[in-house]
Amino acid sequence: DTGVSQNPRHKITKRGQNVTFRCDPISEHNRLYWYRQTLGQGPEFLTYFQNEAQLEKSRLLSDRFSAERPKGSFSTLEIQRTEQGDSAMYLCASSTTRTGELFFGEGSRLTVL
Amino acid sequence: AQSVTQLDSQVPVFEEAPVELRCNYSSSVSVYLFWYVQYPNQGLQLLLKYLSGSTLVKGINGFEAEFNKSQTSFHLRKPSVHISDTAEYFCAVTGGGNKLTFGTGTQLKVEL
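YS: structure for the whole thing
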């Protein structure tokens, strides 16, 4: 297994456009997490899934953000009507235990012009 | 809820010198603690973790950390750093295993 995979790695878009990021977790991992990281900051929790169920969402996840994990495997994070403040690195992670050890992908960097 | 404080945003150190990166946490429940490293334009890689048992935890690349419950600290140490250790280091905590809360990170810069 090659680890957590994220696509695209980089996305440049104009304000107001919609963007979608995909995350493929490690295959046997039932938990999947999305984090956002801005320059000079640590990753901030956005949401997490156990199998296909979205169990928790951060207040950071505004109505313009939606995440899905339809079959309990890959996940998508969509941002509608992007704003310049959405520019960040979006990190996906997966895990299989309750001890919180997360395995991260390399991230998807979003730049909103 | 849990929180993590990394007081040092940057730590410069000469190669082969020892280093300590500080991490303090706050939690009302028992915690699991982690240190992750992030190289430029890459995701986070686990260095080490404390779940239970011995308070001295050894990780990859010669790093170790000590859990101190009375001081609510989990400082990261390495006796002799290398140029390749230059990276961002994040301390993280979880109380129930559902999600990690990260600190703001410490940039370790190793100089010749």
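YS: worth flagging: The mean pLDDT of chain B is 92.
IM: good catch. Also Residues 24 and 73 of chain B are 4 Å apart (CA to CA).
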